[in-house]
Design a protein that fits this description.
- By secondary structure, the chain is mainly α.
- It has a single domain, classed as Alpha-Beta Plaits (2-Layer Sandwich), CATH 3.30.70.20.
- It has 5 helices and 4 strands.
- The strands form 2 sheets. The chain has a two-stranded antiparallel ribbon. The chain has a two-stranded antiparallel ribbon with strand order 2-3.
- Helix 4 packs antiparallel against helix 5.
- The protein is globular and about 70 Å long.
- This is 4Fe-4S ferredoxin-type domain-containing protein.
- InterPro entries: 4Fe4S_Fe-S-bd.
- It comes from Cymbomonas tetramitiformis.
Length: about 160
């Protein structure tokens, strides 16, 4: 009987998440720049981390009282380039690679998924896999918006490769 209830809850949660996405999937077509921060608390080492983002950027991160894992409190520092650079360094130096740049719509969906695991509504390994997939898709799609670092050289000369 409990397996039947669990299966029904999973089907219901899948239907709810598909309804929340609707025809627009922010992971397929990002609506803008990835300027928001998402911390995957399932991978975060929390207070045991050797390079703590909370120590490096106390203005942007804090430890959650319930989970003792890092959580982002401030989403952006557009007015101060030094703080923005320090935040970028902090994201890149996370030993577990659990801090990610995402768009606002992506952030909302990722936080809903994470909250399911924290509240015990879904199995942690299932949510962790789902977050992994969504973050991989977000990293790929969000990176496509960037301007190339260098423009290709153009030449009007004909080149013979033989």
């Amino acid at each position: 009987m409990s397996q039947l209830i669990t299966a029904y809850e999973q089907i219901l949660q899948t239907a709810i998440s598909e309804d929340a996405l609707g025809p627009y999937d922010p992971f397929e077509e990002p609506e803008g720049p990835a300027d928001r921060i998402f911390v995957n608390e399932l991978r975060c080492l929390g207070v045991n981390c050797s390079y703590s983002c909370v120590k490096a950027m106390p203005d942007a991160f804090r430890f959650d009282e319930e989970t003792q894992r890092a959580r982002c409190t401030s989403r952006r520092f557009n007015d101060d380039e030094d703080l923005e650079y320090t935040l970028w360094q902090t994201v890149g130096q996370c030993p577990e690679r659990c801090i990610h740049y995402v768009t606002k719509a992506q952030l909302d969906i990722l936080q809903l998924e994470l909250q399911k695991a924290i509240d015990g509504m879904s199995p942690i390994d299932q949510v962790e896999y789902s977050l992994y997939e969504l973050l991989a898709k977000a990293a790929y799609e969000n990176g496509r918006e960037r301007v190339p670092k260098r423009q290709p050289r153009k030449s009007s000369k004909w080149v013979d490769f033989y």
